[in-house]
Amino acid sequence: MAAQTEAAESREAKVMRRLAGALDDYGLSTIGKSVAMAYLRKLPEDDMARVRAWWLRKLNGSDLVPPSNTPARQRGCPELFEGLRAQPVWWRGCEETRSEFPPELAWVADVERNAPAMREELLRLRDQGEEHFQPYRAPSSEQKGGRGATDRGDWNVFYLELHNMDFEAHRERCPVTCGVLERIPQTYGHAFFSSTACNTHITDHNGPTAKKLRCHLPLLCPAEGCRIRVGDEIVRMARDKAIIFDDSFNHEAWNDHASEARIALIFDVWHPDLSAREVKFLSFLQTAAMKRAKRVCEAAGVVGDTFYSVIDQGRRVRPEDARVWGAAAAAAPGDA
What we know:
The protein has 11 helices and 12 strands.
């Protein structure tokens, strides 16, 4: 009996050493690693089931291989989670009625209700000097198959939140929008205004993880020509009507209008199937990993294609107003 107990303790010790080793990738401090290990010891509990399956796949070295039941259009996503609903489109605001909101998306009503006020705030950005839109850039879109994020047209963004980067000056100019975002439960810490110029096609791509959903709220939008494909579904875009989708599925978007830009508020929320403890743990790991990446980039003076350097280089570029605002560039605030 003593020998069996010793063997069981030895196996547990080996597992815990492997768990601790896997945490090294996140650059955690000694205290941070202790906190993470405390969470990992709770993995057998029901409300940690999705994280348990994901973490075991990491330990087995199979986390980069999609699970066998992964939909074909989702297989290009590098971080997949078993046990989460794999549903390409969750909400089509221009097609459904207010009474049909799923309970986990009840916050959408507040977002759409505040769209006119957020549009006025967005339009005031046109006349602001130092704080401006920047070209969308990301190492993944720049490197994939030699293609950029678009194969025609222009895509520019105005960040409000992005992985521990300093966009406080942007948020100060958008108090209404930031107030709306603060009321949404379990936001993911990624929010921005996205301008898709006229005659623009954003090429097909998969998001980096399946642990979140993405919301598009068009605030300026042509009556025709704007649509998005998620998986095999195509959804028409309309002003003040939110679209919520799982961007881990392959997706692409178009603005085929001849002169008008489409500008949307885009933000992410944690996948509603994740428990509160899973969100807390995954958020903890993600924050640690991004802080580490930022420290490494700053310490090395990196100027290549890292996440932080690419975003920082983009901040120094101010696109022409017509490429951001289209026909709205010549309109007075509140006209559009």
